[in-house]
Amino acid sequence: MARRWPLLLALLAVLTGLALPLLPVRVADPVVSWPKPGAPAESTVALFLPYRPLRVELTVSCAVLNQPKQTTVFATSRPQDADARLTGLYVSTVDGWVQVSANGREVFGGPVGGSGCQYRVSAADGRIAVRRDGLELAAVAGPVPQVAAFATELPPALATGRIEVIAHADARFQASPTLVKYLLLGLSALLALGCAALLALRFRQRRPRSWPKPRLPDLVVPAVLAGWAMVGPMTTDDGFYVWMARNTANLGYVGNYYHWFNVPEAPFGTLQRFFAEWSAISTHPLWLRAPSVLAGVLSFWLLRGILRRIRVAAPAVHAPGWLLAAAFLCWWLPLDLGVRPEPQIALATALTGYAAVRARLDQAPAWLAGAALVGGVAVTITPSGLLALVPPLLALPSVLRGLPGTAERVTLCALLVGAGSIALPLVFADLSLGGLLEATAVHGWYGAHSPWYLEIQRYQALLGGLGEQGGVLRRVPVLLGIAALVLIAVLRTRYRGSALAGAATWPYVWLALGFGVLALSPSKWTQHFGALAVFGALALACAFGSLPRLLAEARAGWLLRLGSLALVVLLLGVAWHGPNWWWSYSDRGMPFRHVELFGGVLGSPVLLLAVGLLAGLLMARRWRAALGWAAAGLAQVSMVFAVLLAIGLFTFTAVREPWSLRSACGIGDAIRVRTDREPMRAEEKPAVQGFLPGSGFPGESSPPPRTGPVWGSFADLDRGTGRLSTGWHTAEVAPGDVLVVSAAGLTGRGNELRAEVELPGSAPVSVRLDDELDRPEWRDFVLGTANSPGTARVRVLAVDGSVGRGGWLAVSAPGREHTHPLAADTGADDGPTLVDWPISFALPCARPPVLANGLAEPPARVLLAEQDYADMAAITRDPRWGGAYANLLSVAGYRGVSTHLPGRPWGRFADLAYDYRLDGHAVRVEHRMRPGWWRGPGIANEDYSGRTDPNRAPR
Length: 955
Hints:
The protein is an alpha+beta fold. The chain contains 23 helices and 36 strands. The strands form 7 sheets. Strands 1, 4, 9, 10, 11, 13, 14 and 36 form an 8-stranded antiparallel β-sheet that branches. Strands 15, 18, 19, 22, 25, 27, 28 and 34 form an 8-stranded antiparallel β-sheet that branches. Strands 16, 17, 20, 21, 23, 24 and 26 form a 7-stranded antiparallel β-sheet that branches. A hairpin with a 2-residue loop joins strand 10 (127-132) and strand 11. Helix 1 packs parallel to helix 12 (406-420). The relative contact order is 0.12.
């Protein structure tokens, strides 16, 4: 029995974990009623999310159905919105005739039937029915209509007491455990931890401990990573992940927030649950980046330990500490800063890699206990968490062979599985089996999921040339990693020495399998390469540190040595021709933005060949041996240069740009909101030739500013030319004030618009104003921002040199506007602010609207991303992506607010003007017991939102 109870412990750990998703759960059932008890029946916004409630019951008295003219008695969106009729519920009446339509189809049409009757429209379980006084008049099959509002064209005095709606919002994923499930969750976690503890105790071996002395790289790398947190780039989903985490407390689970109907990020929510607690302390960008910095430091220190152990077993491996540091930073800096999971997965691979090396080389199976726990946690973070299983699984056969008998081997395997079952309580703590299945179906239907055989898409994105996915400093480590694997594979066919046998091959096997594991990830972003930072850095350091010795010991001829150099030159040439492109505001104001660095000269094969030969000569110190060192020298120089270049570019940009993530509110502290314009005093009369005062622009265009005179050249069929000097204008300015001029028409090509500006404390400047547009709308041009109090002077010069139609130009007199920081309008006390996900990480002080109880809180304002990211950001307002606010603009409109940030446009700020009140309905949250396998009505289908099956083959 003593031999069997470890097996029983492991079996119980697995069985209790597998039982968790099947246990009953308490599912939230929000009941939304309109109007509020005791309140008038006024139209109100109600943004349901998912869009279709589980059930809707509408009761209408016949007393309001005898309207003399066409009247919408009830609608689930703006009555005039023709598109909304295709998905909503509408009840209308005219001259004693009532019509009920749902999802664009008529359900019932007929005479009202008297003033004392009552109609009830119910929609649930795929069926929509109309009853009058309990008698069913009509019914059709179809989903519950979408709801964005409870609207009526009836006056409140007539509608109150005669119209009532009860809707059960779809909050199926807000499931809390029952007492039984809580107990089983605790038991499952304890059993998994018990398996790990028993494994460690049963197979422990007492060995003398020796702690290596810190070396210079052990101090330099942490310092670089700490500095990188201050200046480094945002990653693709920083804002997305943070807002998911910030909304978790409202839901009880990790939802997708911006899209996919906010369904759970199942089964990968462990990291966001951590960040939900972490961001509750502070949303300062540096605080949010701290875990990734810590992960980087620990990963490098563990990496040093792994390499130290490998070199003990394989002394022929040559990888000096400075080279390992360069390789690690080359891979880590462009890919592993922020709140995405790659830094934590890299740390997990370092932990399991170190444990696997100790277990295999020291014949100490106890180390695998930690590897099992870490691997179990890693697979609940992201699909690439499978990378953490690579080292222990490769080490396991050797460890098993070292055990004395079959019983010990079975016990070890059983306890490893039991310890790894820690993943089950982590996944199903706030999730049921039905929730997992439905969330997975939604991800597949509405997401961009690619199977393993389309892994080529990741490399197409890496080498495609445009966007941060193919950025130059992402290409360098990945392509060098591929070069290392190719070179080692070729040498392995010719050389069987200790430098390419046993432990010496582990770094390359880990990296090769790591590239393969990434193929299993359902999305093909190049950001995922960051999870390979530990495997990649180890392989790069070992390969290019040992390559000269390997070539010499393999007695490689000049052809193989030259081929090695040619391969590295080729792949680095491709890498250095990538664009210097970084996510969102990260490259704002950066040199060589969105183009090749230094005009692409870094990718010149001639330059790379010369650098390789020179490096080889300096390292070998002999002409004849230089070719054998050239490939390794070029790779080493490239890694060091990539690290220095990244640090230099971002440090320069941080000094140059007026905003920083070091600020508590990020770019929100730098963006200035402009208030009403005040005219500047005219010190001179304008000099005018061909421009007409107060006119000279088409009357159908937007109105000109009302704060001073305007002039335009639109005359004589728009074939005239002219010149204008507004004369000097002056105004007293305070720090933060901006000087502004407005213009319409064509500002460039044959025309010219220029302003001469003198600000207090600054040298006079001449500013050319050309937005490369030819439009009749008036546009504002900010001439400068005052940094000191005093008197500012401005003179505007305009030239209309175009003789063709459409070449006119109109301009206003300059004005002064006071400003204040955007953060002052978007703080937590200013109500909810919906920020587009590509920029939300840079605006941490904005309070996210709450998504909970099957409803989306109406935001007070929106911050929209700049044009480069507008299409990506639009998924939030697109029903085909399950956007959380797809119905927002069916009940509201944007009211633009003028802002200014020196340099490129940052985006747009708009208040929301709603058609209806926001508080006219009541919400009461009830709960229902559901079995673990209950899924509810399907969301992943074409009828729900109009999105077609993404897996359907095109015809």
